[in-house]
Amino acid sequence: MVSCEESMRALAFSARGQSLIGQEMFKVLERARHIEEAGVKIFHLELGNPRLPPPPQIVAGTISSLQRGDVGYTYSAGLPALREAIAERYSAHHGCALDERNVVISPANFLISQFLDLVCNREDRVAFFTPAFPTYWAAAAHIGLAVVAVPLDAKADYRLTMHDVDVAIAARPRAILVNSANNPTGAVYSQSVLDYLAQRCESLGIWLLSDETYGDIAYGASFYTLARTGLPHVVVMSSFSKIFSVPGFRMGYAIAHAAVVNKLTLSNSTQLSCLPAFTQIGCIEGLKVIDDYTAAVRERFSRTNAEISDLVNRSNLIQCVIPTAGFYVFADVSAVTDDDMDFSQRLLERSHVAVTPGRSFGSEYSRHVRVATCGHYDDVREGVVRLIDFARTLVG
Amino acid sequence: MVSCEESMRALAFSARGQSLIGQEMFKVLERARHIEEAGVKIFHLELGNPRLPPPPQIVAGTISSLQRGDVGYTYSAGLPALREAIAERYSAHHGCALDERNVVISPANFLISQFLDLVCNREDRVAFFTPAFPTYWAAAAHIGLAVVAVPLDAKADYRLTMHDVDVAIAARPRAILVNSANNPTGAVYSQSVLDYLAQRCESLGIWLLSDETYGDIAYGASFYTLARTGLPHVVVMSSFSKIFSVPGFRMGYAIAHAAVVNKLTLSNSTQLSCLPAFTQIGCIEGLKVIDDYTAAVRERFSRTNAEISDLVNRSNLIQCVIPTAGFYVFADVSAVTDDDMDFSQRLLERSHVAVTPGRSFGSEYSRHVRVATCGHYDDVREGVVRLIDFARTLVG
Fold first, then answer.
1. pLDDT digits (tens, 9 = 90+) for A238-286
2. Distance from CA of B268 to the nearest CA of A (A)
3. What is the ipTM of this complex?
4. Which residues of chain A does B26 touch, with a Cβ-Cβ cutoff of 8 Å?
5. Do A59 and B47 touch (CB under 8 A)?
6. Cβ(B261)–Cβ(B104) below 8 Å
7. Chain B residue at shortest CA distance from A72
8. A378, B77, B107, B279 — which has fewest CB within 10 A?
9. Which of B65, B90, B133, B271 has the most A C-beta neighbours within 10 Å, making it the best mutation to test the interface with A?
10. Do A259 and B8 touch (CB under 8 A)?
11. What is the Cα–Cα distance from A70 to B67, expressed in whole angstroms?
């Protein structure tokens, strides 16, 4: 075949095709792969790829399903039993009034694109509170949206305030994305501010996507789901990836008004047909033990993140806000660099530590890097020690 | 939550959101579900959901991978070993000059949307030869494309001719979709016509997606892959769903110029992050036995389709072209109805047989239905007998 460079000139892509940027951490993973192929051990702190063993029930349920031969097509909205189990959990655990018709199964990362595609036209405005998860930027760029970035205050531990909500609303966006518990900051937003945001959006007809992927891993603050509001413009999404340590299952869900669920089901039917039945059946088994499992996960990350944050802050060189949820530390490396891309690249090549550059979370974070603390603890600790040592080599 | 109808008025979706139509056969599946919940047996002839046991190696490979704990994220382009195995098979089996850089893993149904999204802007023209697979219509509607439908001649057994190619090219579309071996007709197109199509597209800068999902199930004619051409504007896609009887794996691939593979990888990264590793590892194991397995599959469907076609044509009421590939029979029911939707709905309710209405393949096929012959043989046969009996009740 013709060389890549030669034909890139001749091959004309669409506007959306030209706007594809992807997720930086998957590019880091790919770069790391080439170093690993030379036999070098890489400390993977770039992806939120939990290395805790998942609940045995979820894997056993998946394997049993495969052994029974559940390898055919299934419903575009997801298995009814899984949709019901999720509705029941939100009803029992969060006091929501939901049933199967309010739940659709889809990969959580895909739901970000599906939501924006469903409610925004090209050149519409969408508001994020930053730092914000890379897929929000990638999906907005792909769809051709103008992003209104509302930076949260590090001095207030990156917690959302009513003032931040007012700033976002004042831009009159078509949609707002909010993410509590937050990736990358580990902040958990208060019920009063989240309700204020939801009510203002509903009253103005602004769509709101509440990404609650890390809600079950809030250990330092009380988590509130916007599914409680039952408002038609509020779409809640979450994932089994993080709470069950199975990101490779590519399984998440949205909770929404039945009319929105119907649209997302058509989106699935058009694009994915359906999802595998066997991993959905595994998730049904997982949901039976979710409370015990996530309690252990919270205990684990509460301890790990306290230790890693402490290690970072004791460096007196790089620093971070102490997270209250999730498994990331968003580290300020401004004392040693103003170029996170260069810093990350050299950290990977010299010290064999992979992190995600801060600007993936917003252009103003080019002096930050995100460290995922969900790998094997010794590896995470060694990776962070190497990160600090590398930073020291850059001083003066 | 508020009722569906009430809020549909208030909820404003995007232009793309309004244009979502989905795939009709998944709606039929959902309707059939409600009848099945009442304890009634439904004969499922609506979906290409193969009920042959898959090769044991693919399931065993998937289960071993799950047991080893391969439940984390992996590369957005797919596992290198799977990409290499596909490149090797096309090199060995079809004489293509390919390597890993020419292969990207993605669900085949999604690749249709990904391809159109990558190369077409809203309101661009896209040409299909009809009857054409429902996802082509759904994806084009979703993206906002103008479809140029080029009907193939039933009297010529729905085979593509150079004249058909000229008609499609004359419309100056931005892209053309071609599907040999064909769903729903079972036609296999000749190398000379396919090469003519590819060369004309390349010379005019028209993108060509060659959907070769059923290529390995061509039993009555010799299958030719356009991957042989190595042309930069030609993107080949295929799936493991049909050739391994595992549609629930949701696993397919595209073969393309490295620049296009890079774009599709960014599309995956933005939308899906990646696919499960364990099902990819299962497919690697499956590829080791593909030649023996698909030989048995071809033998099976050659016999089944001959028998089912014969049954249909002996009715002297409904009729079909005898397929030379795949596992569908595209039945002309014009002797008894001019409304395939009504016909299909009543067939489901009265005779408990689910089929796909013909207009899903193009508006001019409202006097056809598609019958999938890939279920358990006795069920397929019984379903077709019921279909014929139902048709007889409609004869004036």
1. 999 999 999 999 999 999 999 999 999 999 999 999 999 999 999 999 9
2. 8
3. 0.96
4. 73, 75-76, 269, 273-274
5. no
6. yes
7. B248
8. A378
9. B271
10. yes
11. 18
Other Cβ atoms closer than 10 A to A369: 32
Chain A residue numbers touching B246 (CB-CB < 8 A): 71
Query: Which residues in chain A are closer than 8 Å to B140, comparing Cβ atoms?
Result: none
CB-facing half-sphere around the CA of B37: CA atoms within 13 A: 8
CA distance A128 to A141: 13
Q: Which of B22, B74, B259 sits opposite A11 (nearest CB)?
A: B259
CA distance A26 to chain B (A): 7
Quick one: average pLDDT of A166-186?
Answer: 98
User: Is residue B336 within 8 Å of residue B395, measured between CB atoms?
Assistant: yes
Quick one: which of B298, B300, B288 has its CA closest to B220? B298
pLDDT tens for chain B, 396 residues long, are 444 445 445 799 999 999 999 888 888 888 898 999 999 999 999 999 998 999 999 999 999 999 999 999 999 999 999 999 999 999 999 999 899 999 999 999 999 999 999 999 999 999 999 999 999 999 999 999 999 999 999 999 999 999 999 999 999 999 999 999 999 999 999 999 999 999 999 999 999 999 999 999 999 889 999 999 999 999 999 999 999 999 999 999 999 999 999 999 999 999 999 999 999 999 999 999 999 999 999 999 999 999 999 999 999 999 999 999 999 999 999 999 999 999 999 999 999 999 999 999 999 999 999 999 999 999 999 999 999 999 999 997
What are residue B253's phi and psi, to 5 degrees?
Answer: -160, 160
Asked if the Cβ–Cβ distance from A279 to B274 is below 8 Å, we say: no
Within 8 A of B15 by CB-CB distance, chain A residues are 121
Identify which of A137, A219, A134 has the alpha carbon closest to the alpha carbon of residue A184. Answer: A134
**Would you report the helix, strand and coil content of chain B in percent, each value rounded to 5?**
50, 15, 35
3-state secondary structure at position A339: coil
3-state helix, strand, coil in chain A (%, to 5): 50, 15, 35
Spell out which residues of chain B touch residue A110, defining contact as CB-CB under 8 Å: 271-272
Q: Across-strand partners of B125?
A: B146
Q: Do A71 and B80 touch (CB under 8 A)?
A: no
- Region of A131 please: left (phi>0), alpha (psi -120 to 50) or beta: beta
A69 and B49: CB-CB below 8 Å? no
* List of domains in chain A: 16-53+292-393 (3.90.1150.10), 56-289 (3.40.640.10)
Q: In what order do the strands lie in the sheet with B146-151?
A: B103-106, B252-255, B234-239, B207-211, B175-178, B125-130, B146-151
Cross-chain Cβ contact A270/B138 below 8 Å:
yes
